[in-house]
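Form 12-C: Joint structure prediction
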Amino acid sequence: MAQFDPSTFSPQIIWLVISFAILYIAMSRFALPRISRVLEERQHKIDESLKKAAAMQSEAQAASEAYDNALAKARAKAQDHMRNAREKAAQEASQRQEVLAERLAGDIQAAEKRIGEAKGDALSRIREVVVDVAGAAIEKLSGEKPAAKDVGSAVDDALGGRS
Amino acid sequence: MKQFEIRPLVEINIGGFDASFTNSSLFMVIAVSLATLFLILSMRGRALVPGRWQSLAEISYEFIAGMVRDNVGPEGRKFFPFIFTLFMFILFGNMLGMLPYSFTFTSHIIVTFIMAIFVFLGVTIVGFAKHGFKFFGLLLPEGVPWYIIPVLVPIELLSYLVRPVSLSLRLFANMTAGHTMLKVFAGFIVTLGFLGVAPLLIVTALTGLEFIIAFLQAYVFTILTCIYLNDSLHLH
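Section 2 - Result
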């Protein structure tokens, strides 16, 4: 086998050492620092972006909380207003109703009074008419005009007995 | 076999040592150039959102960085460039070997052995530099009954010393065996005539397998280096 020929060992060893050393220098001086710098920069950028995103998220959350608060406050205020308005309207309505009831009661009383007056009036007029009618009837029957006073008392007797 | 032969392209002799630029050297230089070009050109844009090539370079970086982090821990950070270089060198060597008419420098025991012995010596030096004589504690797991110690220590010592051999043999044998197997089955295709379809199918499947092995052996070599390094840094 060619691999076990010692005469080929020395050139292989020498060139192995040379090429390996060159590759080591190229890697450790140029290639690897460059890659690690790019990777670090990227990591840095990612970290920064994540931090920024987290800050923005907390900001958004705060804004949303403030909005919720404002909304709740506005809702409570609106409900207050509504309740006030309702109470006021109810109060007013009951007041008006009272006033109206009072007025109507007054009207009813006045009307009743008027009716009573009219009734009394009518009753007193009936007596006069009865007296007249009775006088006239007596005159027709007897041919003689009775004294108004007698007729009156007679009518009063008759009415009084009835009423 | 012809594909494993070392042929000098330029004869060089330094102080009696043969330092000829061979086909093996050529492919080492190509592997180093391709790996360097790949990692430098792909990162030229330094884009925040990577393109295809940049993604590939970043994936390679993070693959090895993750391997070092998981197997060695934060102290492994300063060995990362070496481990990355090791992985790239072996990976590109193995992958270049998959091209027809190319040369696989990782199929030579001397190359894998030099890499393994370098890792072995480096790891041992790191261990002694960090722990001093306590590094010998590596040979003695905690909580062992005293009467087992005389048996256990030689076994541990042997398994420690055999590390560079197993590390280098694994890569060398996998590469050599894979290429030899491809060669053998490919040889049947023409001689079997019409029936050559069967070995052709096998060679096709084996080629896919060899690509997986090319990656896997680079990975195994690298992760074993990480594990040895972890042993040296943290003992058991």
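Section 3 - Comments
Chain A touches chain B at residues 1-5, 7-17, 19-20, 22-24, 26-28, 30-32, 34-39, 41-42, 45 (CB under 8 Å). Chain A has a mean pLDDT of 90.
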